[in-house]
Amino acid sequence: QIDTTFDVADARARGGAAMRDAIARICDEARSAVAAGKPLVVLSDRAMSESRIAVPSLLATGAVHQSLVKDKERTKVGLLVDTADAKEVHDFATLVGYGADGVCPYVAFDAIAAMAERDGVQPSTAMTKYQKAVSFGILKVMSKMGISTVQSYKGAQIFEAVGLGEEVVDTCFTGSTSRLKGVGFDVLMEDALRFHEAAYPEGSREPDYLNFGDYHWRDGGEAHYNTPAAMVALQLAARTNAREAYDDYSKLINEANSRVTIRGLLKIGNDGLLPEVPLEEV
């Protein structure tokens, strides 16, 4: 078993460099385990605590998988991931797609067991349903890619990275396409620290049980294309045929477009870098 956590103080002091070093150490330990003839390597973040922060499981899994592939040792060992950050289908799909042979989402299991006991349901029944739902979800992802076996899907890296810089892709997702480039380990470290501080707040403050609005709009959460303000403006424009209300709706949608879509990052301007095309030729 390889511990994928590292010291929080080091993370705060050195930022992305601390995460890069932690990933390098995890890869070294995995190579040592293979050299020692171990049949399985378990990447675990159960040591995470107030003083320990975890490398995101997908980064650790991808880096170890790629490291062993480069050393031509990957087929000699099974790679299991024991992690707190796998919850939904996409989490499992990417972990398997980047080399995991198995995933144990222990925090998801604990949460499901607690909810089942609260609602008078057998925890084992609830967890079995969760496992089936995740399995069917992975099969759906595979089927959309025309893949019929997990063996063909595992480690195939049939994903395109959006917003990840070259250093992250080269280290953890070697060969994956990342047309837009993007953030490096420094920004990923900032995100990891933000989540850690929410779970282990300083002083006597209670942990933040945050709803980041991944699925539904939440004030201060993830940006969405459709917002309550935009829906109010649209309904008002439709019911009253008011041009002003429609203009408000258009403005809100255009602002949201710049935050949630790739095309919203593009600007059309006359900067002189490219020759203008005569209108008659269009």
Q: Any overview of this molecule?
A:
The protein has eleven helices and eight strands. It has helices spanning 8-14, 16-35, 57-70, 89-97, 106-118, 123-144, 150-153, 166-172, 185-199, 228-240, 243-260, and strands at residues 2-3, 5-7, 40-44, 52-54, 78-83, 102-105, 163-164, 182-183. Strands 1-3-5-6 form a four-stranded parallel beta sheet. α8 (166-172) links the parallel β7 and β8 (182-183). The longest helix is centred in the middle third of the chain and has 22 residues, at 123-144. The termini are far apart.
Q: Which of globular, elongated, flat, extended, rod-shaped describes the shape?
A: globular
Secondary-structure content class? alpha/beta
Q: What fraction strand? A: 5-15%
The number of helical runs is 11
How many beta-strand elements? 8
SSE pattern: EEHHEEHEHEHHHEHEHHH
Biggest sheet details: 4 strands, parallel
Head-to-tail CA distance between termini:
63 Å
Oligomer: single chain
Q: What fraction, in percent, of the residue positions are helical?
A: 40-55%
- Chain-averaged pLDDT: 91
Low-confidence stretches: none
Radius of gyration: 23 Å
Strand order of the largest sheet: 1-3-5-6
